[in-house]
Amino acid sequence: MNNSFLGFLSLSFTKFKKAAIIPNNLADKSQNQPKVFCVAHYLPPLKNPIAYRANKLLGEFQKTWKVDVLTATKDSCLPGKCNIHYVKSYYPEALITWLQKLRFEKILNLLIWPDPEIFWVFPAVLKGYQLIKQQKPDAIFVIMMPYSAGLVGVALKWLTGLPLVVSLDDSLSCTDMHPNTVSWLHHHLERWLENLYVRQANAVVYVSQFNLDLVKNRQPESEKSKFHLIRCGADPLDFATPINSQNDNSSFEIIYTGGMNGWYNFYHLPQEKTLVKKLYKAWLEWGYYQRTKIDHRSSSPVFVGQAIKKLISQKLAWENKIKLSVYGNSFPEFVVNKVLQNQNITDVVTVSGALPHFQAIQLARQADLLLITLPNRPDGTQGGRISCKSYEYLMTDRPILAAVPYGENWDYLQDKPGIWLVEPTDIEAMKEVIAHIATAKFSGSPLRFDRTHLHNELSYQILVQDYLKIFDNLCSISN
Q1: SS3 category, 397
Q2: Taking the complete model, does pTM exceed 0.85, yes or no?
Q3: How many CB atoms are closer than 10 A to CB 306?
Q4: What is the three-state SS of 409-428?
Q5: Residue 37: CB partners within 8 Å, gap ≥ 6?
Q6: Which of 201, 244, 245, 415 lies 20 to 30 angstroms, CA to CA, from 83?
Q7: Cβ within 8 Å of residue 205, ≥6 positions away
Q8: d(CA 82, CA 93)
């Protein structure tokens, strides 16, 4: 239903007498679905995890709620009857590109805060306010990231008085995702911004218990009831298609789906790191406030590739039989190729670009071993990051090698069947796990694990019910 038609209906109803309007409106209100106005900067066809999660959540929402979505994603799409409203950002692309060519990235990082999407906030608030006045929703829902999208939600709440629910994928306080900020001032600004979202929202949803507790513990007692843990999940329909279960005992494939960000840590060999490059890197990092030290090298196929090479050197009969396939790479091909060559793992690791999410899932369902690997925390402290692929992998029956640091992801996986947990750079431990699972595969008895008891917990259809309980409660209070 378009906005002009809704406006026409509104004008038509005002011609009735007040005595007639009141009972009719009450009757209509009881019969119509409740309405939610959602701010979702990222939507499909984008392939990032935020867009995927928004797609699944809002697709379920629209079964019981009327959904209007404000987005910055051009030509976006959602299932069902979600009404999508595109708003273009005021991002000064030409100017910023010119400044980047002049190597002014550091200055741009200092000035553009909390993220480049801040240029979308003003036009989004103007359009959002107009739509809310027309559509008269019952609540506002913001899906982050980007973090500046939360400012749109806060402004719309101030302007309309509607209850606000904010959902964060990665907390601003998560030191795994944000080990550094560009300055000490920005560190405190980010803490202030997350506190602002908590105190202005009527409910705040986190996907990580660790991050939730971290933020909750610094809030006054009056704010602590706002916090809710609703994890990411998976869609059971994506796993319902029959797959080829034919057992080929001649090869063993480890599969990783998703992006990695540790490539540049291996791009230059030690002898290639010139003084000029070191000085430039020092200049870019000068003034940064370090919350914790993160080793991004393990967010790469390097350590697992080395484990495979070491295993093959001990079991020569397995040469050319074990490989790691990475799907979803977004880094330039020349960077990937150079890293694989530098580390001498081109014969055991293949890297492919982005592919449709459904296709990635089907590949994962046929793996001999699924891999999760996250950046390491050398100081041994725990972190709050949890990989979204954890939930999708658990929907399969395949063994999982989780090379993750201690913290949220480790704690979540440690009591699940078919999981081998190792530290992210422990090549020897990875080698032993791969050897154990490959031996079973080559002997004709591949390892499989029944995780059907977890499917309801992981299903977006079930997770959405937790969101709807929040909205129902807030709307009953506001009414």
Answers
A1: coil
A2: yes
A3: 19
A4: HHHHHCCCCCEEEECCCCHH
A5: 68, 70, 128, 131, 132, 135, 137, 139, 140, 141, 156, 162
A6: 201
A7: 165, 166, 167, 168, 228, 229, 230, 467, 470
A8: 30
SS (H, E, C) 154-216: HHHHHHHCCCEEEEECCCCCCCCCCCEECCHHHHHHHHHHHHHHHHHCCEEEECCHHHHHHHH
Rounded Cα distance, 322 and 442, in Å: 11
pLDDT in single tens digits along all 479 residues of the chain: 444 333 433 433 333 333 333 334 433 443 578 999 999 999 999 988 899 999 999 999 999 999 999 999 999 998 888 999 999 999 898 888 888 877 788 888 889 999 999 999 999 999 999 999 999 999 999 999 899 999 999 999 999 999 999 998 889 999 999 999 999 999 999 999 999 999 999 999 999 999 999 999 999 999 999 999 999 999 998 998 888 766 678 899 999 998 899 998 898 777 677 777 777 777 777 888 999 999 999 999 999 999 999 999 999 999 999 999 999 998 999 999 999 999 999 999 999 998 888 899 999 999 999 999 999 999 989 999 999 999 999 999 999 999 999 999 999 999 999 999 999 999 999 999 999 999 999 999 999 999 999 999 999 999 999 999 999 998 887 66
Please name the amino acid found at residue 322: I
Is residue 108 helix, strand or coil?
A: helix
Instruction: Compute φ and ψ for 297, nearest 5 degrees.
Output: -55, -35
Judge whether 148 and 166 are in contact, CB under 8 Å.
Answer: no
Q: What distance in Å separates the CA atoms of residue 319 and residue 348, rounded to the nearest whole number?
A: 9
Residue 189 to residue 377: CA distance in whole angstroms? 24
Q: Estimate to the nearest angstrom the gap between the alpha carbon of 38 and the chain centroid.
A: 17
Contact 407, 377 (CB under 8 A): yes
**144 has which bridge partners?**
168
